Every structure is written in C-alpha cells, then in structure tokens.
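Worked example 2:
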Amino acid sequence: MKQFLVALSLAIGACSPALGPSRVQLNAGPMLGDITPTSVRLWAAADIPMRFNIELKTVDGEWQAAANNPLLVLASSDNPRGSCEIMGLSADTEYQYRLIASDGVVVEKSTQKFRTSGADKFRVAFGSCAGDWGPDPSQSIFKTIAAQHPQWFLWMGDNIYYSRARQEWNDIEMMRERWKIQRSLPHLQELLSSTAHASTWDDHDYGPNNSDKTYFLRDESFELYKSYWPNPYFGSDDDGVYFALHLGGVDVFMLDTRFNRQPNKLDAKDKELLGERQWRWLEGELRGSSAPFKLIVSGMQLLAEYHTYESWAMFDSEKQRLLNYVNDNKINGVVLLSGDRHIGEILRDDLVLDYPLIEFTSSPLAAGVGGSTSDAIATRRIANSEITAEHFGILDFDFSGTDPTLIYSAMGQHGEQLGLSYTLRASQLMSPQ
C-alpha cells in the first residue's frame, strides 16, 4: 500500500497511539475539505487542545498510520480547532479513516470515509441558507444530503445566521458561539465526515443583513470564518474567501461578494463588488481553465432582475464586466450557481453570451422559505422550476462519453424530488469558432 503523508503548515509534535477507545471527544467533525486524486484535507474541533494521529485503510486493506505528522487541533481559548492535509493517496479510491489521540482511538460518531477524485462519474450537491429558524430547527436535511452520497458539497453562503434578536454580529464572542453551535449539530456530522466541503459566505455568516466592506468586524469575521472551513486557500492575497476547485472536468470558482463590496446604497454606476484582486484572480482562472464545465458560484443571483432583493443587478458594471470577459475570451462551459433567495429556480438567458447561460439557484437549506413569484414576472425562469421549500441542489456529472453531461435535480428535506430535472451537455455551452 502506498505510504500516507500528512502535511501541516503549523508546528506539530508526534504522539504515540494507544489501543482502545479514547476519552477525548470531538464536538464537531472530523470534516473533509479539498479532495484531489492524491490528497484530502481534514478539519476537526474539540473541547480541549489536542493532537491526533490519523490512520487510514482501503476497503480490503489494514489500518495504517499516516506517516509524517498528526492532525493538530489548535490550542485556543474558545473552541479548539484545526486542519491538516493527507497526501500520497491513490486516485478514485475509497478510504476509511480514524483519529488517534494519545490515550486511544477517538470513537466515531458517524461514517468516516472518502473517495479520492478521478472517477468519470461523480455527484456535487450545493445549497445555501442554513439556520435554526426554518420549519425544522434541527436541520435534519443534512442527513438527507449525506444519504445521497455526493463527493462534494458546495456551501454558497448564509451557512449560519447570526441572531437578529441578539445582534450577535456586534460581538465577536457571540459570533464564535454561534459557529460552535451550528457546526456541532448532530444531523450535520455524517455529512461533514463523508463528503468534501467547500464554502463561500454571504451577508448572514459574514455580519449583519446586506453587509459590505464597511462592517466594523470585517477582519475578525474573516479570521473566524477561515478557522471553520478547510478550503484549499482564501483569496489571492488573504483578502476574501474566494478560491478555485479542480474536479476533473469541472472547475469551480467560489466568489466572495462581501469582503470588498461597496455599500448597496452607494450612488455610483461603477461601484465595486469583487475588488480588483479578486477580478484579476477570476479572469486568470477562467482564461486558464480547459474544463468542459466551469461553475461560477455566487452568494447572490446574477441573472435575476425581476425582484428587488440583492443581486448582481445592483452592480451592473461588475455584471457586464464578467459577461463581457466570458464572451470576449470565448470561455466555454460557464454555468452559474447561486443562493440567498430562500427559493429555488432555474434561470436561462440566451442573449448575454454566445451560448445559453444557465443559473441554478438553491435556497434555503434550513431557514425560512420565501414566497412564490409567477413565471410571467420571472421572465428568465425556466417554466415550473420554482421551488418554495427547504431543499438542496444536485449536479450529476458524467465524463464517460464523448460529450460530457451535467444533470441538475433538487431534493427536499425528506429526499423527495422537487422542481424540474435539467440536463446540459458540454457541446451546448460552446462559443462559435
């Protein structure tokens, strides 16, 4: 069996595993982050500062210690947490894993396994808006998502809600407590430990409603957010939570529409949304991508213009910059994912690019559900695609044929099919040569 390697960016020390169950308990996780054909990131949180060794095994193999370093859970005055990267894995291979504390094996609270990237067929789930103020405060939808066995789950913002009643966004200690409560939800744990996660934020997990770069705890919120997500990186110069994922024939570009955002009410036709460094990063990533599908993930909608809620329509110069860049550089395969709206829908515009531009909106996961709007008013909506229920989106990718496909569907809290299924072929998303 190939030797496993664990790389840490922090100083660590080895510990000797002992037999039997450990007395150490995790209060959240372990959680899977960035998965590649040869590596995976792990995150965990505990009640006390701890160091862990990691053991892995293939389906027919024996437990083997990750050779180099243990997983370090950060020493901290609040919730100790940390992450590491395991390298030297084999592509398209299923692994089980476990954590070893100094006094024994940490007892698993849920399934702890993952499959490395490299398959021709795989599933990506996505959603936004998760809190305890929806129809099901226990947020059992996360168990439903885990049961669909996605390889990835994309969190598109409002991944927690700071309490409006307590105005928790005004106190960094209350913000820390809110993250600790949400991340330790019992229904969430299996999804954390068996699916890779990638996340960007929106206003309610960044700060107050409709917040922007003027938020006075902007930097503190950024540091707190980073400590809870094992994203591959954060921004091009530590200036936001944007990053790219490369999933075989799918490249995912997670945008940050908060950290550098100028206020919505600013009366300037060229007001900024992404910030220039994020723009340079995004343009370079799009230009360098050869993936048949390029998912651009935004906390708020880009194509919708029928409502007055937050959208890219408030930042028209930024919206046109993105569309013009895609057109002028003949970038194929672009598909939009968005959240925020507390409804789901499929939007389509056949005029803004040289090929149809599709946007899949999925919201809420577990929060209040918005009201319905007729298809006659939402003119870019695919007829009968609106969803007014807690739900999540699914993208099933198939690269086994000559024309790769993406099939979108949506499921409700109990696994029921909602809305329309929608199929896209890579050949449909190409600019004329």
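The first helix runs from residue 141 to 147. The chain has seven helices and 22 strands.
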